[in-house]
Protein backbone atom coordinates (compact mmCIF):
# COMPACT_ATOMS: atom_id res chain seq x y z
CA UNK A 1 0.00 0.00 0.00
CA UNK A 2 1.19 3.50 -0.71
CA UNK A 3 0.09 6.77 0.76
CA UNK A 4 -1.85 7.42 -2.44
CA UNK A 5 -4.21 4.61 -1.49
CA UNK A 6 -5.08 6.33 1.71
CA UNK A 7 -8.07 8.34 0.58
CA UNK A 8 -10.02 10.34 3.13
CA UNK A 9 -13.31 8.90 4.29
CA UNK A 10 -16.48 10.30 2.81
CA UNK A 11 -18.30 12.62 5.19
CA UNK A 12 -20.54 10.19 6.90
CA UNK A 13 -23.80 9.91 8.77
CA UNK A 14 -26.03 11.89 6.48
CA UNK A 15 -29.68 11.13 5.85
CA UNK A 16 -30.04 7.46 4.91
CA UNK A 17 -28.01 6.20 7.83
CA UNK A 18 -29.07 2.72 8.74
CA UNK A 19 -30.10 2.78 12.31
CA UNK A 20 -31.41 -0.38 13.95
CA UNK A 21 -32.18 1.23 17.29
CA UNK A 22 -34.42 4.14 18.09
CA UNK A 23 -32.81 7.47 19.03
CA UNK A 24 -32.09 8.38 22.60
CA UNK A 25 -35.13 10.58 22.88
CA UNK A 26 -37.20 7.48 22.39
CA UNK A 27 -36.16 6.47 25.87
CA UNK A 28 -36.90 9.85 27.31
CA UNK A 29 -40.15 8.64 28.73
CA UNK A 30 -40.04 10.72 31.86
CA UNK A 31 -37.92 8.16 33.69
CA UNK A 32 -34.76 9.69 32.33
CA UNK A 33 -34.54 12.26 35.09
CA UNK A 34 -31.34 12.61 37.03
CA UNK A 35 -31.64 10.60 40.19
CA UNK A 36 -28.59 12.48 41.43
CA UNK A 37 -28.94 16.10 40.27
CA UNK A 38 -25.18 16.73 40.47
CA UNK A 39 -24.27 13.84 38.20
CA UNK A 40 -24.66 13.46 34.43
CA UNK A 41 -28.03 12.01 33.38
CA UNK A 42 -28.64 8.30 33.74
CA UNK A 43 -29.97 6.97 30.46
CA UNK A 44 -31.88 3.86 29.49
CA UNK A 45 -31.10 1.15 27.00
CA UNK A 46 -28.34 -1.09 25.77
CA UNK A 47 -24.83 0.44 25.73
CA UNK A 48 -24.60 -0.14 21.95
CA UNK A 49 -27.44 2.33 21.49
CA UNK A 50 -25.46 4.94 23.37
CA UNK A 51 -22.27 4.21 21.52
CA UNK A 52 -24.17 4.89 18.30
CA UNK A 53 -25.91 7.93 19.70
CA UNK A 54 -22.61 9.37 20.88
CA UNK A 55 -21.20 8.93 17.39
CA UNK A 56 -24.24 10.58 15.83
CA UNK A 57 -24.10 13.42 18.34
CA UNK A 58 -20.46 13.96 17.43
CA UNK A 59 -21.38 14.18 13.80
CA UNK A 60 -23.99 16.78 14.52
CA UNK A 61 -21.04 19.03 15.39
CA UNK A 62 -19.43 20.97 12.58
CA UNK A 63 -16.04 19.28 12.39
CA UNK A 64 -16.27 15.56 11.78
CA UNK A 65 -12.62 14.97 12.65
CA UNK A 66 -12.83 16.54 16.09
CA UNK A 67 -15.26 14.19 17.81
CA UNK A 68 -14.27 13.49 21.35
CA UNK A 69 -13.77 9.89 22.39
CA UNK A 70 -16.26 8.81 25.05
CA UNK A 71 -17.07 5.97 27.40
CA UNK A 72 -20.43 4.31 27.78
CA UNK A 73 -20.87 2.88 31.27
CA UNK A 74 -23.49 0.17 31.69
CA UNK A 75 -24.39 0.11 35.37
CA UNK A 76 -26.39 -3.07 34.96
CA UNK A 77 -23.05 -4.81 34.37
CA UNK A 78 -21.83 -3.69 37.78
CA UNK A 79 -25.06 -5.00 39.27
CA UNK A 80 -24.67 -8.30 37.41
CA UNK A 81 -21.18 -8.71 38.86
CA UNK A 82 -22.50 -8.03 42.33
CA UNK A 83 -25.14 -10.74 41.93
CA UNK A 84 -22.41 -13.08 40.75
CA UNK A 85 -20.37 -12.23 43.82
CA UNK A 86 -23.27 -12.85 46.13
CA UNK A 87 -24.06 -16.17 44.46
CA UNK A 88 -20.47 -17.47 44.63
CA UNK A 89 -19.13 -15.87 47.79
CA UNK A 90 -22.14 -15.16 50.00
CA UNK A 91 -20.03 -15.33 53.16
CA UNK A 92 -17.57 -12.63 51.98
CA UNK A 93 -18.50 -8.94 52.07
CA UNK A 94 -16.89 -7.05 49.19
CA UNK A 95 -15.13 -3.74 49.96
CA UNK A 96 -14.83 -2.25 46.49
CA UNK A 97 -11.29 -1.01 45.72
CA UNK A 98 -11.99 2.62 44.87
CA UNK A 99 -8.69 3.15 43.04
CA UNK A 100 -9.83 0.82 40.28
CA UNK A 101 -12.49 3.25 39.11
CA UNK A 102 -13.82 5.93 41.47
CA UNK A 103 -16.75 6.66 39.17
CA UNK A 104 -19.53 8.51 41.05
CA UNK A 105 -22.32 6.27 39.75
CA UNK A 106 -20.36 3.09 40.45
CA UNK A 107 -19.70 4.25 44.02
CA UNK A 108 -23.39 5.06 44.55
CA UNK A 109 -24.65 1.81 43.09
CA UNK A 110 -22.23 -0.23 45.21
CA UNK A 111 -23.05 1.81 48.30
CA UNK A 112 -26.73 1.10 47.65
CA UNK A 113 -25.94 -2.59 47.29
CA UNK A 114 -24.28 -2.57 50.71
CA UNK A 115 -20.62 -3.08 49.82
CA UNK A 116 -17.82 -1.54 51.80
CA UNK A 117 -14.99 0.46 50.26
CA UNK A 118 -11.23 -0.02 50.14
CA UNK A 119 -9.60 3.41 50.12
CA UNK A 120 -5.91 4.19 49.78
CA UNK A 121 -5.77 7.94 50.42
CA UNK A 122 -7.48 10.94 52.00
CA UNK A 123 -8.90 11.79 48.62
CA UNK A 124 -10.59 8.41 48.22
CA UNK A 125 -11.92 8.50 51.77
CA UNK A 126 -13.39 11.97 51.20
CA UNK A 127 -14.90 10.90 47.91
CA UNK A 128 -16.63 7.89 49.48
CA UNK A 129 -17.87 9.81 52.53
CA UNK A 130 -19.08 12.68 50.32
CA UNK A 131 -21.55 10.30 48.68
CA UNK A 132 -23.57 10.39 51.89
CA UNK A 133 -25.20 7.49 53.67
CA UNK A 134 -21.93 5.56 53.97
CA UNK A 135 -20.81 4.99 57.54
CA UNK A 136 -17.02 5.27 58.04
CA UNK A 137 -17.10 1.72 59.41
CA UNK A 138 -17.73 0.61 55.83
CA UNK A 139 -14.27 1.83 54.81
CA UNK A 140 -10.97 0.01 55.13
CA UNK A 141 -7.92 2.21 54.69
CA UNK A 142 -6.03 -0.54 52.89
CA UNK A 143 -2.77 1.23 52.17
CA UNK A 144 -0.09 -0.27 54.43
CA UNK A 145 2.19 2.79 54.05
CA UNK A 146 0.32 5.98 54.88
CA UNK A 147 1.53 9.53 55.44
CA UNK A 148 1.04 10.42 59.09
CA UNK A 149 -1.30 13.24 58.09
CA UNK A 150 -3.47 10.66 56.30
CA UNK A 151 -3.63 8.57 59.46
CA UNK A 152 -4.62 11.66 61.44
CA UNK A 153 -7.28 12.50 58.88
CA UNK A 154 -8.64 8.95 59.05
CA UNK A 155 -8.98 9.36 62.81
CA UNK A 156 -10.86 12.62 62.29
CA UNK A 157 -13.17 10.98 59.76
CA UNK A 158 -13.75 8.01 62.09
CA UNK A 159 -12.20 5.58 59.63
CA UNK A 160 -10.71 3.08 62.07
CA UNK A 161 -9.99 -0.01 60.02
CA UNK A 162 -6.55 0.18 58.40
CA UNK A 163 -3.77 -2.09 57.22
CA UNK A 164 -0.07 -2.10 58.10
CA UNK A 165 2.92 -4.27 57.19
CA UNK A 166 5.85 -2.56 58.92
CA UNK A 167 6.91 -1.25 62.33
CA UNK A 168 7.13 2.43 61.37
CA UNK A 169 3.46 2.33 60.44
CA UNK A 170 2.69 1.13 63.96
CA UNK A 171 4.53 4.10 65.51
CA UNK A 172 2.67 6.50 63.21
CA UNK A 173 -0.69 4.95 64.03
CA UNK A 174 0.04 4.86 67.77
CA UNK A 175 0.69 8.60 67.57
CA UNK A 176 -2.04 9.70 65.16
CA UNK A 177 -4.87 7.19 65.58
CA UNK A 178 -4.40 5.07 68.72
CA UNK A 179 -7.99 3.71 68.56
CA UNK A 180 -7.45 2.28 65.08
CA UNK A 181 -8.43 -1.30 64.30
CA UNK A 182 -5.40 -2.74 62.57
CA UNK A 183 -5.16 -5.42 59.94
CA UNK A 184 -1.78 -6.94 59.22
CA UNK A 185 -1.12 -7.31 55.52
CA UNK A 186 0.90 -10.43 54.86
CA UNK A 187 2.92 -11.35 51.82
CA UNK A 188 1.54 -14.08 49.58
CA UNK A 189 2.51 -15.56 46.23
CA UNK A 190 1.64 -13.01 43.56
CA UNK A 191 3.64 -14.45 40.68
CA UNK A 192 0.44 -15.52 38.89
CA UNK A 193 -0.84 -11.97 38.46
CA UNK A 194 -0.62 -9.17 35.91
CA UNK A 195 0.34 -6.65 38.58
CA UNK A 196 2.44 -8.05 41.37
CA UNK A 197 1.96 -6.09 44.55
CA UNK A 198 4.26 -8.16 46.76
CA UNK A 199 7.36 -6.29 45.65
CA UNK A 200 5.92 -3.25 47.41
CA UNK A 201 3.62 -4.49 50.18
CA UNK A 202 3.07 -7.36 52.55
CA UNK A 203 4.87 -8.62 55.65
CA UNK A 204 6.63 -11.97 55.20
CA UNK A 205 5.24 -14.46 57.72
CA UNK A 206 8.61 -14.59 59.51
CA UNK A 207 8.24 -10.92 60.45
CA UNK A 208 4.65 -11.20 61.67
CA UNK A 209 5.35 -12.25 65.30
CA UNK A 210 7.75 -9.31 65.75
CA UNK A 211 5.27 -6.85 64.28
CA UNK A 212 2.45 -8.15 66.45
CA UNK A 213 4.66 -7.93 69.55
CA UNK A 214 5.44 -4.33 68.66
CA UNK A 215 1.75 -3.54 68.11
CA UNK A 216 0.91 -5.08 71.46
CA UNK A 217 3.68 -3.12 73.19
CA UNK A 218 2.25 0.09 71.70
CA UNK A 219 -1.19 -0.84 72.96
CA UNK A 220 -2.67 -1.09 69.48
CA UNK A 221 -5.64 -3.25 68.53
CA UNK A 222 -4.83 -5.68 65.74
CA UNK A 223 -8.08 -7.26 64.58
CA UNK A 224 -7.19 -9.36 61.58
CA UNK A 225 -5.16 -10.34 58.57
CA UNK A 226 -5.21 -9.25 54.92
CA UNK A 227 -3.37 -10.16 51.76
CA UNK A 228 -3.51 -9.42 48.05
CA UNK A 229 -2.62 -12.11 45.54
CA UNK A 230 -1.83 -9.44 42.93
CA UNK A 231 -4.12 -7.63 40.56
CA UNK A 232 -5.38 -9.51 37.54
CA UNK A 233 -4.74 -12.93 39.01
CA UNK A 234 -4.85 -15.59 36.30
CA UNK A 235 -4.17 -18.64 38.48
CA UNK A 236 -6.96 -18.80 41.07
CA UNK A 237 -5.27 -21.64 42.93
CA UNK A 238 -3.01 -19.05 44.62
CA UNK A 239 -5.89 -18.26 46.98
CA UNK A 240 -5.42 -21.68 48.50
CA UNK A 241 -1.87 -20.94 49.60
CA UNK A 242 -2.77 -17.40 50.63
CA UNK A 243 -5.51 -18.64 52.97
CA UNK A 244 -3.11 -21.18 54.48
CA UNK A 245 -0.70 -18.33 55.25
CA UNK A 246 -3.49 -16.19 56.66
CA UNK A 247 -4.30 -19.10 58.99
CA UNK A 248 -0.69 -19.10 60.22
CA UNK A 249 -0.90 -15.35 60.80
CA UNK A 250 -4.11 -15.88 62.80
CA UNK A 251 -2.29 -18.38 64.97
CA UNK A 252 0.61 -15.96 65.42
CA UNK A 253 -1.98 -13.42 66.52
CA UNK A 254 -3.25 -15.79 69.19
CA UNK A 255 0.34 -16.32 70.37
CA UNK A 256 0.74 -12.55 70.68
CA UNK A 257 -2.39 -12.33 72.77
CA UNK A 258 -4.76 -11.12 70.07
CA UNK A 259 -8.05 -12.63 69.08
CA UNK A 260 -8.45 -11.84 65.39
CA UNK A 261 -11.95 -11.40 64.04
CA UNK A 262 -11.31 -10.19 60.49
CA UNK A 263 -10.02 -12.04 57.44
CA UNK A 264 -9.52 -9.81 54.41
CA UNK A 265 -8.84 -11.82 51.25
CA UNK A 266 -7.97 -8.75 49.14
CA UNK A 267 -8.58 -8.32 45.42
CA UNK A 268 -7.23 -9.85 42.24
CA UNK A 269 -10.52 -11.36 41.07
CA UNK A 270 -10.74 -11.70 37.30
CA UNK A 271 -13.95 -11.83 35.36
CA UNK A 272 -13.08 -14.96 33.42
CA UNK A 273 -11.77 -17.00 36.34
CA UNK A 274 -14.15 -15.72 38.96
CA UNK A 275 -16.23 -18.84 39.64
CA UNK A 276 -13.08 -20.93 39.82
CA UNK A 277 -11.36 -18.48 42.15
CA UNK A 278 -14.44 -18.34 44.35
CA UNK A 279 -14.45 -22.10 44.63
CA UNK A 280 -10.74 -22.33 45.51
CA UNK A 281 -11.21 -19.57 48.03
CA UNK A 282 -14.31 -21.05 49.67
CA UNK A 283 -12.71 -24.48 49.92
CA UNK A 284 -9.55 -23.03 51.46
CA UNK A 285 -11.55 -20.97 53.96
CA UNK A 286 -13.57 -24.05 54.94
CA UNK A 287 -10.39 -26.04 55.36
CA UNK A 288 -8.36 -23.50 57.36
CA UNK A 289 -11.15 -21.69 59.17
CA UNK A 290 -13.66 -24.46 59.88
CA UNK A 291 -15.14 -22.96 63.07
CA UNK A 292 -15.12 -19.31 62.13
CA UNK A 293 -18.00 -18.23 64.34
CA UNK A 294 -16.98 -14.66 65.11
CA UNK A 295 -14.66 -14.14 62.15
CA UNK A 296 -15.92 -11.68 59.56
CA UNK A 297 -14.59 -12.21 56.04
CA UNK A 298 -14.21 -9.35 53.60
CA UNK A 299 -12.52 -8.87 50.22
CA UNK A 300 -11.31 -5.90 48.18
CA UNK A 301 -12.37 -6.57 44.59
CA UNK A 302 -11.78 -3.78 42.08
CA UNK A 303 -11.40 -4.96 38.51
CA UNK A 304 -14.05 -7.65 38.87
CA UNK A 305 -16.82 -5.11 39.40
CA UNK A 306 -16.11 -2.59 36.67
CA UNK A 307 -13.98 -4.03 33.90
CA UNK A 308 -16.82 -5.12 31.63
CA UNK A 309 -19.10 -2.21 32.46
CA UNK A 310 -17.27 0.43 30.42
CA UNK A 311 -16.89 0.61 26.64
CA UNK A 312 -14.78 3.25 24.95
CA UNK A 313 -15.60 4.78 21.55
CA UNK A 314 -12.73 6.43 19.70
CA UNK A 315 -12.63 8.33 16.46
CA UNK A 316 -10.00 7.70 13.81
CA UNK A 317 -8.39 11.10 13.41
CA UNK A 318 -5.54 10.22 11.06
CA UNK A 319 -4.00 7.41 9.14
CA UNK A 320 -0.78 6.73 7.30
CA UNK A 321 1.37 3.99 5.83
CA UNK A 322 4.24 2.88 8.04
CA UNK A 323 7.76 3.58 6.90
CA UNK A 324 8.95 0.01 6.89
CA UNK A 325 9.99 -2.40 4.20
CA UNK A 326 7.35 -4.78 5.45
CA UNK A 327 4.62 -2.32 4.57
CA UNK A 328 5.99 -2.02 1.09
CA UNK A 329 6.19 -5.77 0.74
CA UNK A 330 2.74 -6.13 2.23
CA UNK A 331 3.92 -8.80 4.64
CA UNK A 332 0.93 -10.08 6.58
CA UNK A 333 2.69 -10.06 9.93
CA UNK A 334 3.53 -6.36 9.74
CA UNK A 335 1.02 -3.53 9.93
CA UNK A 336 0.11 -2.21 6.49
CA UNK A 337 -1.48 0.94 7.87
CA UNK A 338 -1.31 3.02 11.03
CA UNK A 339 -4.52 4.45 12.47
CA UNK A 340 -4.45 7.35 14.92
CA UNK A 341 -7.35 7.60 17.35
CA UNK A 342 -8.34 10.32 19.81
CA UNK A 343 -7.54 8.56 23.06
CA UNK A 344 -4.26 6.90 23.92
CA UNK A 345 -1.89 5.61 26.57
CA UNK A 346 -1.73 9.01 28.28
CA UNK A 347 -5.51 8.85 28.55
CA UNK A 348 -7.84 5.88 28.99
CA UNK A 349 -5.29 3.46 27.55
CA UNK A 350 -2.85 4.08 30.39
CA UNK A 351 -4.01 0.58 31.35
CA UNK A 352 -1.65 -0.70 28.66
CA UNK A 353 1.39 0.78 30.42
CA UNK A 354 0.33 0.59 34.08
CA UNK A 355 -1.99 -2.40 34.09
CA UNK A 356 -0.29 -4.57 31.46
CA UNK A 357 -3.46 -4.82 29.40
CA UNK A 358 -3.77 -5.82 25.77
CA UNK A 359 -6.74 -4.08 24.19
CA UNK A 360 -8.81 -5.21 21.23
CA UNK A 361 -10.52 -2.75 18.90
CA UNK A 362 -13.67 -3.48 16.95
CA UNK A 363 -15.28 -1.35 14.29
CA UNK A 364 -18.18 0.72 15.61
CA UNK A 365 -18.91 2.55 12.39
CA UNK A 366 -17.39 2.64 8.94
CA UNK A 367 -18.19 4.71 5.89
CA UNK A 368 -21.27 6.14 7.55
CA UNK A 369 -22.77 2.84 8.57
CA UNK A 370 -23.04 0.89 11.78
CA UNK A 371 -23.34 -2.33 9.80
CA UNK A 372 -20.00 -3.93 9.17
CA UNK A 373 -20.28 -6.82 6.74
CA UNK A 374 -18.86 -10.06 8.11
CA UNK A 375 -16.79 -10.60 4.98
CA UNK A 376 -15.06 -7.18 4.97
CA UNK A 377 -11.51 -7.64 3.68
CA UNK A 378 -9.05 -7.04 6.53
CA UNK A 379 -5.48 -5.94 6.78
CA UNK A 380 -2.95 -5.91 9.57
CA UNK A 381 -3.01 -2.51 11.21
CA UNK A 382 -1.59 -0.69 14.18
CA UNK A 383 -3.55 1.75 16.30
CA UNK A 384 -1.97 4.82 17.92
CA UNK A 385 -3.03 7.48 20.41
CA UNK A 386 -3.20 11.19 19.61
CA UNK A 387 -0.17 12.53 21.51
CA UNK A 388 3.19 13.34 19.98
CA UNK A 389 4.93 10.59 21.93
CA UNK A 390 5.87 7.40 20.10
CA UNK A 391 5.21 5.34 23.23
CA UNK A 392 1.56 6.20 22.60
CA UNK A 393 0.74 2.94 20.81
CA UNK A 394 -2.64 1.44 21.65
CA UNK A 395 -2.43 -1.70 19.58
CA UNK A 396 0.71 -2.76 17.71
CA UNK A 397 -1.15 -5.34 15.65
CA UNK A 398 -4.85 -5.63 14.83
CA UNK A 399 -6.84 -7.05 11.95
CA UNK A 400 -9.06 -4.21 10.77
CA UNK A 401 -11.09 -3.63 7.59
CA UNK A 402 -9.18 -2.26 4.63
CA UNK A 403 -11.99 0.22 4.07
CA UNK A 404 -11.48 1.93 7.44
CA UNK A 405 -10.93 5.69 7.01
CA UNK A 406 -10.46 8.91 8.94
CA UNK A 407 -13.77 9.74 10.63
CA UNK A 408 -14.69 6.10 11.28
CA UNK A 409 -15.01 4.87 14.85
CA UNK A 410 -13.31 2.09 16.79
CA UNK A 411 -14.76 0.62 19.98
CA UNK A 412 -12.90 -1.01 22.85
CA UNK A 413 -14.72 -3.32 25.29
CA UNK A 414 -13.74 -4.04 28.91
CA UNK A 415 -12.40 -0.56 29.61
CA UNK A 416 -13.74 -0.07 33.14
CA UNK A 417 -10.76 -1.03 35.30
CA UNK A 418 -7.68 1.15 35.81
CA UNK A 419 -8.49 3.38 32.82
CA UNK A 420 -10.39 6.64 33.42
CA UNK A 421 -8.96 7.06 36.90
CA UNK A 422 -5.34 7.30 35.81
CA UNK A 423 -5.87 9.22 32.56
CA UNK A 424 -3.80 12.39 32.21
CA UNK A 425 -4.22 15.49 30.07
CA UNK A 426 -0.71 15.22 28.64
CA UNK A 427 -0.31 17.19 25.43
CA UNK A 428 -3.54 19.07 26.13
CA UNK A 429 -5.92 16.21 25.41
CA UNK A 430 -9.11 15.95 27.45
CA UNK A 431 -9.97 12.89 29.50
CA UNK A 432 -12.82 11.07 27.74
CA UNK A 433 -16.28 11.73 29.19
CA UNK A 434 -18.68 9.03 30.33
CA UNK A 435 -22.26 8.44 29.19
CA UNK A 436 -24.27 6.40 31.70
CA UNK A 437 -26.99 3.88 31.08
CA UNK A 438 -28.88 1.40 33.21
CA UNK A 439 -28.27 -1.02 30.34
CA UNK A 440 -30.37 -4.01 29.49
CA UNK A 441 -29.92 -6.41 32.38
CA UNK A 442 -32.60 -5.84 35.03
CA UNK A 443 -32.35 -2.15 34.24
CA UNK A 444 -35.49 -1.17 36.12
CA UNK A 445 -34.10 -2.84 39.23
CA UNK A 446 -30.82 -0.93 38.94
CA UNK A 447 -32.71 2.34 38.56
CA UNK A 448 -34.92 1.47 41.52
CA UNK A 449 -31.92 0.67 43.72
CA UNK A 450 -30.26 3.98 42.84
CA UNK A 451 -33.47 5.97 43.28
CA UNK A 452 -34.07 4.46 46.71
CA UNK A 453 -30.48 5.18 47.74
CA UNK A 454 -30.81 8.81 46.59
CA UNK A 455 -34.02 9.12 48.58
CA UNK A 456 -32.41 7.61 51.68
CA UNK A 457 -29.57 10.12 51.45
CA UNK A 458 -32.02 13.00 51.12
CA UNK A 459 -33.81 11.81 54.26
CA UNK A 460 -30.52 11.47 56.12
CA UNK A 461 -29.36 14.92 55.08
CA UNK A 462 -32.69 16.49 55.99
CA UNK A 463 -32.39 14.89 59.42
CA UNK A 464 -28.82 16.12 59.95
CA UNK A 465 -29.63 19.73 59.04
C1 LIG B 1 -5.52 -2.48 43.90
C2 LIG B 1 -5.94 -3.11 45.16
C3 LIG B 1 -7.12 -3.86 45.19
C4 LIG B 1 -7.96 -4.16 43.98
O1 LIG B 1 -7.38 -5.14 43.19
P1 LIG B 1 -8.15 -5.78 41.95
O2 LIG B 1 -7.13 -6.63 41.33
O3 LIG B 1 -8.59 -4.65 41.07
O4 LIG B 1 -9.29 -6.55 42.47
C5 LIG B 1 -7.51 -4.36 46.41
N1 LIG B 1 -6.79 -4.16 47.53
C6 LIG B 1 -5.66 -3.43 47.53
C7 LIG B 1 -4.93 -3.23 48.81
C8 LIG B 1 -5.19 -2.89 46.35
O5 LIG B 1 -4.04 -2.20 46.34
From TrEMBL:
<dbReference type="InterPro" id="IPR029066">
    <property type="entry name" value="PLP-binding_barrel"/>
</dbReference>
<dbReference type="InterPro" id="IPR002433">
    <property type="entry name" value="Orn_de-COase"/>
</dbReference>
<dbReference type="InterPro" id="IPR022644">
    <property type="entry name" value="De-COase2_N"/>
</dbReference>
<protein>
    <recommendedName>
        <fullName>ornithine decarboxylase</fullName>
        <ecNumber>4.1.1.17</ecNumber>
    </recommendedName>
</protein>
<dbReference type="InterPro" id="IPR000183">
    <property type="entry name" value="Orn/DAP/Arg_de-COase"/>
</dbReference>
<keyword id="KW-0663">Pyridoxal phosphate</keyword>
<comment type="similarity">
    <text>Belongs to the Orn/Lys/Arg decarboxylase class-II family.</text>
</comment>
<comment type="pathway">
    <text>Amine and polyamine biosynthesis; putrescine biosynthesis via L-ornithine pathway; putrescine from L-ornithine: step 1/1.</text>
</comment>
<comment type="subunit">
    <text>Homodimer. Only the dimer is catalytically active, as the active sites are constructed of residues from both monomers.</text>
</comment>
<dbReference type="GO" id="GO:0033387">
    <property type="term" value="P:putrescine biosynthetic process from arginine, via ornithine"/>
</dbReference>
<feature type="modified residue" description="N6-(pyridoxal phosphate)lysine">
    <location>
        <position position="99"/>
    </location>
</feature>
<dbReference type="GO" id="GO:0004586">
    <property type="term" value="F:ornithine decarboxylase activity"/>
</dbReference>
<dbReference type="Pfam" id="PF02784">
    <property type="entry name" value="Orn_Arg_deC_N"/>
</dbReference>
<feature type="domain" description="Orn/DAP/Arg decarboxylase 2 N-terminal">
    <location>
        <begin position="76"/>
        <end position="307"/>
    </location>
</feature>
<dbReference type="InterPro" id="IPR022653">
    <property type="entry name" value="De-COase2_pyr-phos_BS"/>
</dbReference>
<feature type="active site" description="Proton donor">
    <location>
        <position position="388"/>
    </location>
</feature>
<dbReference type="GO" id="GO:0005737">
    <property type="term" value="C:cytoplasm"/>
</dbReference>
<keyword id="KW-0456">Lyase</keyword>
<dbReference type="InterPro" id="IPR009006">
    <property type="entry name" value="Ala_racemase/Decarboxylase_C"/>
</dbReference>
